[in-house]
Write a structure and sequence with these properties.
By secondary structure, this protein is mainly alpha-helical. The chain has four helices and five strands. The strands form two sheets. The protein has a three-stranded antiparallel sheet with strand order 1-2-5, with no helix packed on it.
């Protein structure tokens, strides 16, 4: 019996084109950080362990590769992580970070546009060789 007899014809692959907004990513990030603080292992889409927002005595919440507070951080004392994250979550749900999230969405759009432009330029360069 051949491959096609066993598995049939190949199907079209549907590309999922739903990008999460910065707000959705931050909400998911908070959930992941809660799991980390509870001792669970949390993996990213590539199967690697995600980084804690609490490191080196600094609290640095991030959305993708962008820090929520644009490179700034809050100091914290060891043992205060859960309380700090809880307060952060309450403030997030109350909409206190809306301005920061709006800036992040804009930065993400700009970054995507740069990546698309670079990809097209690279493709054109390869075609001319």
């Amino acid at each position: 019996m051949g491959f096609f007899d066993t598995y049939g014809k190949p199907a079209n692959v549907k590309k999922v084109d739903k990008k999460l907004s910065a707000e959705e990513m931050l909400k998911k990030g908070i959930e992941q950080q809660e799991k980390l603080l509870n001792g669970e292992q949390v993996l990213n889409a590539k199967g690697k362990t995600i980084r804690s927002w609490f490191r080196d005595g600094r609290f640095i919440p991030s959305v993708g590769v962008f820090g929520l507070f644009d490179g700034k951080a809050y100091s914290f004392k060891k043992g205060d992580e859960k309380e700090m994250l809880s307060g952060f979550k309450i403030s997030f749900e109350a909409g206190e970070f809306a301005g920061y999230i709006k800036v992040l969405d804009k930065r993400r759009e700009e970054n995507t546009a740069k990546l698309i432009y670079a990809k097209k330029a690279n493709k054109e360069l390869k075609l001319t060789k």
